[in-house]
Design goal:
Elements lengths: L8 H15 L20 H12 L3 E8 L2 E8 L6 E7 L2 H5 L3 H14 L4 E4 L1 H6 L1 H16 L2
Parallel strand pairs: 3-4
Antiparallel strand pairs: 1-2, 2-3
């Protein structure tokens, strides 16, 4: 249990992030104000993927998270509004550091332990065969919804 009585912003951020992971919904009351413009974090590759997924009729939200910790995009269920799939792309930050891969693997394991399903899109695969990558995502969504 995270104690929110300390009044520390970090504790509040952590609690909100855990709530997001568990429920798929962002807090609106008492949510820490982030000075980060989430859309400034979206790469051209992520923007391209988002538009293509929306053409398939999917409800896509870019940069899902709180307090500076975001996954690249989340696919939401149209009926419940809950996130049903998290998508990570290997954008510019992925290639900018030798440690980013390890961090992403650890983060993915943590998200999956909390019930998220994560799908990674590799830019080389996307640009070679985007339709095949879309098929993989749609198949994964179908398997999630059939559980």
């Amino acid at each position: 249990m995270v104690d929110e009585t300390s009044g520390r912003e970090g504790v509040k951020c952590l609690k909100n992030f855990i709530r997001l992971l568990n429920t798929g919904k962002l807090m609106t009351d008492n949510q820490p104000k982030s000075k980060i413009d989430k859309m400034s974090l979206v790469s051209p590759f992520e923007e391209f993927v988002t538009k293509r997924l929306e053409q398939e009729g999917l409800l896509v939200e870019p940069q899902v998270g709180v307090s500076g910790y975001f996954i690249d995009m989340g696919i939401k269920d149209r009926e419940t509004g809950a996130y049903i799939l998290g998508i990570e792309c290997d954008g510019r930050s992925y290639h900018s550091s030798k440690y980013i891969r390890d961090r992403d693997k650890i983060r993915q394991k943590q998200l999956e332990a909390l019930g998220w399903t994560i799908h990674r899109i590799w830019s080389t695969d996307w640009f070679k065969t985007p339709d095949k990558e879309i098929e993989k995502i749609l198949a994964k969504l179908k398997s999630i919804q059939n559980r």
